[in-house]
Amino acid sequence: MVTWLRHLARALVVSAALAAPASAQTAPPPESEVARLVWSTLIALDHANRTGNYTVLRDLASSGFREVNDAARLGGVFAATRDLPLGRVVLHAPRLGAAPEIDEEGVLRLRGRIPMRPEPILFDMLFVPEGGGWRLLGLSVARGAATDPAETGTAGD
Fold it and tell me: Could you state, in order of their start, the residue ranges of all structural domains in the chain?
């Protein structure tokens, strides 16, 4: 009988461990990973905008993002960003407007700008840990107003 109880106790512990949700990551990724997330997301959007094919952007995102967005919907959502020079974002380090933060549900938020001339690219991104890495959950991209003297002017970029 003791053996039976021991097996039952082990089974309960194992089933409780399997049923428990994975603990949310609480520390934001390092600066280099933040830059990679911003650049790779904006480059994926640039490729989608240039080709009109939003399936790769969708497929790289989280399961929650894929559930609510098909490729056609993403084409409509990001139509206003098609004239943005997103292909050049990798030439500039992202400047975050707020420190990366992870909420109680494990969602990482990155907000900031890419300091391009004549106007910066503004971004607000949400990521969730999924499949061993951060996956896109939400994305907003827009043209910003140049407020930094280094971002004004028309020469160069």
Answer: 27-151
